[in-house]
Amino acid sequence: MQNCIRIQEFMAVETFGIENKKVDKELYDYQQKDIEKIFSVIEEHPERYNLLYQLPTGGGKTVIFSQMTREYIQRTKKKVLILTHRIELCKQTSKMLSGFGVRNKIINSKVKELPDQDEYMCFVAMVETLNNRLNDEKLEIQDIGLVIIDEAHYNSFRKLFKFFENCFILGVTATPLSSNIKLPMKDNYRELIVGDSINSLIAKGFLARANIYGYNVGLTNLKVGMNGDYTVKSSEELYSNFSMQEKLLNAYNERSKGQKTLIFNNGINTSIEVYHTFRSAGLPIRHLDNTTSKQDRKDILKWFKHTPEAIVTSVSILTTGFDEPTVETIILNRATKSLTLYFQMIGRGSRILEKKDEFTVIDLGNNLARFGHWNSPVDWKQIFRSPDFYFENLLSDDEIEREFQYEMPQEIREKFSNSKEVAFNIEAAYDDVIKRGLKSKAVLEWSMEQHVKICVENSEDVFDARILAKELKDDISSRIKQYSYCISKSTKNYREWLEEDYSRKLRMAINKEY
C-alpha cells in the first residue's frame, strides 16, 4: 500500500466556511500529487479556464476535490460550487466535505432562495435544480471562484457554464469521453490531467483485480438509437428470451454461484425476467429500477449489504452513487457501446476489503471484445483530443462475431464423452475447399459428417442419436454464421434457412447410419 498523508489539524477560520473542529482524513501520495498538479493550473489560470481531471472509479475523486475545496477556500477566500447529476451524489459529497471540515449547503428542490448564503463558502447542487433557479433568476450565488463538476462526462452540465464564465471550472470523471459523441469534451475543457491508471491502483493495493469471463452473444439484431447506444427495445427482445436467460443462469452457476452479485440490464422487462428466472432456481434475488420507491430501494440495498449470497438485478441505476465493497461478482447482462458505462458497471465491484483483492466479471454482451480488459492501458489524452478516431476504430458487432469460436458447454460436452474431438474449424475447411476447387457447400457437408459421427459415437440407437443432435443447436448456429461470413452472404433470413436445412439433413443422415 502506498504511503499516505494524514490531515490531522484544528482549524479555526470559521469566517472562511471551515469549521472549528478536528479533521482526521487520509490522503494517499498519488492523490496529493494530483491535487498539486491541479492547483498549479489554477495558479496559472485563476479564472475563465476549464480543466478536466481523470481518475478511475475507486481512486477517491470525492476525497480529492473535498480536500481541494478546503484548500481553495483557505487560499483564495472565494466560494466553491460543486455540481452533481443525482441527489444521492449530492448527499455523499456533502457528507465528505463535512468530514474535511467544510461547512456546505445542499441546493435541492426545497431551496428556492439563499438568504443565508453568506454563512457558507461551499454549495452542493444538482444540475437541473440549479439551472432552473438561475434561469428563473430566483437566486444568485455570489463570489464563486471554483466550480467542480462531478461525473463531468454527462452533457447536462454544459447548460450551466454560461452562468460561471469568470470562474475556474474543474470537471472530474473516470472516463473523459462525452456521453454524446456529437458534443466532445475537448469543446468544453482546455486540457486534461490524467491520474493513476487502474493497473497502477491495483498494484498499489487500492483496487481489486477483475477476472473477466466473456460468453459469446450474437448481437447483430440489436439496433443503435439516437444516443449512440443499443436501444432498450431491441435489447429486451434479445435478453428477455428463454435461451439468453438460460445462458445467464448457467454462467452464474458456472462462475459465481454463492457470491454477492450485481446484474446490470438494459430494460426493466429484462431485469424482471432475470428476477423470476433466478427466483425459480431458488436463488436469493431482488429487482431494482427507477420506478422502485425510495423506501423499497433503501430496504433492498440494506438487504443486499447484509446478505452474503445476495443478488440484485437492476437497470443502470446503480452505476453511479452506489458503493458496496462486499460485491464479489458483476454480471453485464447487456451490450453497450458506451466505454463510460462499461467502466462504471465493472467499477462497482472493484472496491477492496481485507479479504477481497479480486472479483469476478461475467460479460454477456461482447463488451470485453469491444473495449478490451477493464484494466488494459487506455490513452485518455488521445481519446480526449480525438474522440472521433476512437469511435471509428471500435470493432463492429459483425467484426466481433467473426472471431467467435464456439465452445461446447461442459454439461453438453459430457454427453459426447466418447468423442475425442467435438470442434470443427469452418474457416480452415473453407480454405481447403477453395484450394481444391470444390463448391463452398462442401464445408457444410464435412461439418455434418462430423456431427453425425459424434452423435453416433455417443448413442445406442437412432432415437438417442437424434436427441443428441438437438443438443447441437448452438454449435450448428455458430458454424452456419461462420460459413456465411466466409461466403460473404450473412443476412438473417439466409442464415435461418441454412440452419433449418442443416438440421433437417442432419436428422436424415443419422437415420441412414442406423
Describe the protein in words.
The protein is an alpha/beta fold and 514 residues long. The chain folds into 3 domains: 198 residues, 3-Layer(aba) Sandwich (Rossmann fold), CATH 3.40.50.300; 187 residues, Rossmann fold (3-Layer(aba) Sandwich); 104 residues, no CATH class. It contains 20 helices and 15 strands. A 7-stranded parallel sheet has the order 5-6-4-7-8-3-9, sandwiched between helices. Strand 14, helix 10 and strand 15 form a beta-alpha-beta unit. The N and C termini lie far apart (67 Å). About 1% of the residues have low confidence.
Key attributes of the depicted protein:
single chain, 514 residues, alpha/beta, Rossmann fold, seven-stranded parallel sheet, 20 helices, 15 strands, 15% strand
Strand-residue fraction?
15-25%
User: What is CATH's topology name of the largest domain?
Assistant: Rossmann fold
CATH superfamily of the largest domain: P-loop containing nucleotide triphosphate hydrolases
The number of helices is 20
Radius of gyration: 28 Å
Q: Describe the biggest sheet? A: 7 strands, parallel
Contiguous uncertain segments of 5+ residues: 8-13
Q: How many domains?
A: 3
Number of strands: 15
CATH architecture of the largest domain: 3-Layer(aba) Sandwich
- What shape does the CA trace take? elongated
Whole-Å distance between the termini?
67 Å
Helical residues, percent? 40-55%
Average pLDDT, rounded to a whole number, is: 90
Task: Give a summary of the structure in a few sentences.
The chain has 514 residues and is α/β, with parallel strands linked by helices. It contains 20 helices and 15 strands. The strands form three sheets. A seven-stranded parallel β-sheet has the order 5-6-4-7-8-3-9, with helices on both faces. A six-stranded parallel β-sheet has the order 10-15-14-11-13-12, sandwiched between helices. The protein has a two-stranded antiparallel sheet with strand order 1-2.
